[in-house]
Amino acid sequence: MGIAAAETVIAWQSHEGLRISQAAGLDVIDCAMCGFRHVVPLPDSRAESASASPLYIDEFQDRLLFKHNIEVPVIPWPRFPKRLLRVCAQLYNSTSDYEKLASALKAEL
User: Fold this and answer.
1) Which structural domain, as residue segments, surrounds residue 58?
2) Are 19 and 29 in contact (CB under 8 A)?
3) What's the pTM value of the predicted model, to 2 decimals?
4) Does residue 99 belong to any structural domain of this protein?
5) Strands (E), the chain
6) In what order do the strands lie in the sheet containing 74-76?
7) pLDDT tens digits, residue range 7-50?
8) Where does residue 44 rank: exposed (0-12), middle (13-18), buried (19+ CB within 10 A)?
9) Total structural domains within the chain
10) What pLDDT was estimated at residue 68?
11) Alpha helix ranges (H) inside the chain
12) What is the reported pLDDT for 48?
């Protein structure tokens, strides 16, 4: 599965941006509101309450790390139970990294 060219503007709640990729019915957008890339929509958290810890780790973030060896932050946004998966695009990331994330999202969601 290749990364699609950013052609389509996706709007979801107050988030809007160019689609970077699409897999399993989810869009990865370059969000104009947040200033970072994230998956839209990410299902609500299954946890009963928000973590009080400043070291908040979402159970979905743990699954991606321990089952797929993918380290990405899943953050409450704008507040629990809503959340975003933040995609970090750096020079050391390759297309295969994003394809691996898309496969993991398809498997886990």
Assistant:
1) 9-108
2) yes
3) 0.67
4) yes
5) 9-12, 15-23, 26-31, 37-40, 74-76, 83-87
6) 9-12, 15-23, 26-31, 37-40, 83-87, 74-76
7) 667 676 677 788 877 766 677 788 888 777 777 667 888 888 88
8) exposed
9) 1
10) 97
11) 59-68, 95-108
12) 86
Q: How many whole angstroms separate alpha carbon 88 and alpha carbon 36? A: 8
Does residue 3 sit within a domain?
A: no
Question: Is pLDDT above 50 for 3?
Answer: no
In a domain, 4, yes or no: no
Measured over the CA atoms of residue 81, residue 3, residue 72 and residue 62, the dihedral's sign is: positive
Residue with tokens 């309450």: 49
In a domain, 72, yes or no: yes
- State the pLDDT confidence band at 64, using cuts at 50, 70 and 90: very high
Contact 75, 86 (CB under 8 A): yes
Res 7: pLDDT: 60
